[in-house]
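Hey, I'm writing a tutorial for new members on how sequence and structure tokens pair up, and I'd like a real worked example in the thread rather than a made-up one. If someone can provide the structure for the chain below, I'll link this post from the tutorial.
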Amino acid sequence: MKLYSSELFKEFPPDIPKIVTSYSSDKITILKARNVFSEPKGFGCYKFLLPAKNMPLAVVEKKQYHLEQKKIFPVNPDQVHLFTEQRSVEPFVPIFIQKKYMREFSHMLSGKSEIFYNNGSFNLDPHITGLVCQFMEEATNKQSGYEFILQSLNTHIIIRLLRNVSSNLSYDSKSKEYYDLRVVKQTQEYLHNHLCSEFSLEDLAAFVNYSPYHFIRIFKKHTGKTPFEYLTELKIERARDLLALKTYSISEISILCGFSNRTHFSTVFKRIAGTTPSQYREANCKTSHLIL
């Protein structure tokens, strides 16, 4: 296995490999370092910094950032960054990930390869800490099968970073979630206003410009019900209100609530309400003179 560190160290000053401890697979290199430098530098890979205590300010593209212990700080390929002071610090851990490899996983998970992480200190997923420690241990001990374990750890580390560190894809995901919720609310309003209309799943999906599969999946995700389960419960809720009045017969209520006949209405009503329409009316009607 050709180690990624052999490629990465070409971007460092010649003396750096001598003063850091390196742990590497073919796609990821993790360092344990004690020195920070004030010379501006941009790497051709993704870099994630796990800071130590009391580190100097970081500067990325001329903007200063406080580095916090137990946080993670991302830097994108070719982003120029440096520290405001050059000195020794407590051991800290930078993670370097090959650009092409990160983008391949980004494309597999989101359909987009151009991932750009937001600069700043973000909460560190404890799973990432555990994976990094395991990566270091395997790269150090090199026991039988360690190369296969490192390949697996490559995947796990990248997926955790893609899931938990803020990026342009995180923003896209939140925007899409907001749009999906808006579509669900739009559908709910439509169903409230068209209890007696006839339409198919395809008709509802077309109404919000979604595929039927995606539409039913996001509707159930946000409501816990399929669109037609939701519609049926709306119909029964309206039937309850009408049954509590003397205005309509049960047969008329079945039609007003969009059921094909009284028998079908009674079957569905009992399944959801736990009682027949007649029994419900008798128990809840606001007047003793009823039309049955």
